[in-house]
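Justification of resources, computational component.

The compute hours requested in this renewal are based largely on the per-chain cost of generating structure records like the one below. Each record pairs the submitted sequence with a full structure-token output. That output is archived, and it is also reused by downstream analysis tasks.
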Amino acid sequence: MKFQQLNLNTWPRLKQYEFFKQYENPFFNICSTLDVTELVNKVKHNNFSFSTSILYASIYIANQIEEFKYRLKGDGVIICDSVYAGSTILSKNDTFNFCYFDYFNDFQAFYENAQKQIELSQNRDIEFDGRNNDIDIIHYSVIPWISFTSFSHPRNYRNNDSIPKIVFGKYYEKNGKIKMPISIEVHHALMDGFHLGKYLKRLQTILNKPDYIC
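The structure output for this chain reads:
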């Protein structure tokens, strides 16, 4: 993992950081709805996996927004050079494992690597690997059976966790558009609702024109 140290003394959010890092539960969660109509049509036409394509769009935008690469480390904050994705994958026995996807600034490279990792995860008995020591990651879950309106995560507050968690739910049709719920949970010492709003706006923009990514 490559990173640089954030200069807290010149950081405009220093006071907010110091305030929220003392909280027993410093995380906040926002659930929203994405319009995935164009992406669904695109992946069906090209015979791509929807879940892999939306995962790429999400991690691509996260790597564009600096706050999504902030992590608590020691007594300070670091900025990861890039972050990669770790997602739950359903196993054949209806349990799940974690699958990890290196970040590529190119959809085709990401997609090909992701499909290989998914196939390995689903077709081989592998150790349950939570990668608890990695922080240059975003944790993803996909729940394609439920169109949720709220979400909460288990958290281990003893390990100085500051990793964002993003969940995609079941997409559905409404008024001729295909909608999908998304949950984003982040550490309030590191970012605010403003940054989540920026993320969702940029993600929706790229979903409206998926030719850019796939």
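The mean pLDDT is 92. The longest strand covers residues 177-187.
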